[in-house]
Amino acid sequence: MAVKRKVCVQCHAFVEGSKCPVCGGTQFSTEWRGRVFILRRESRVAAFMGIPQEGEYAIRIR
Ligand SMILES: [Zn+2]
Fold first, then answer.
1. Ligand 1 centroid, distance to 15 Cα (angstroms)
2. Which candidate, 60, 56, 52, places its Cα nearest to that of 29?
3. At the topology level of CATH, where does 6-61 sit?
4. Which of 3, 4, 11, 52 could link 23 by a cystine bridge, Cβ 3.0 to 4.6 Å?
5. Average pLDDT along the chain, 62 residues, taken 10 residues at a time
6. How far is the centre of ligand 1, averaged over its atoms, from the C-alpha of 43 (Å)?
7. Which runs of consecutive H residues, i.e. helices, occur in 1-62?
8. How much is the pTM?
């Protein structure tokens, strides 16, 4: 398995740079489990997780 990617601790989005593109957060974690890809921000999954826009998110962060 590849190196674990980091996720934003605020919105759970996967982040490549030093700032979250979704919420602007700068705190990240590599201790996450599960992954969900939100195709539509109107979806129930997005509403349930409080996700503001389409993209790839971690389900749980330690
Ligand atoms: Zn974020």
1. 8
2. 60
3. Rubrerythrin, domain 2 (2.20.28)
4. 11
5. 84 94 95 94 88 91 90
6. 19
7. 44-49
8. 0.81
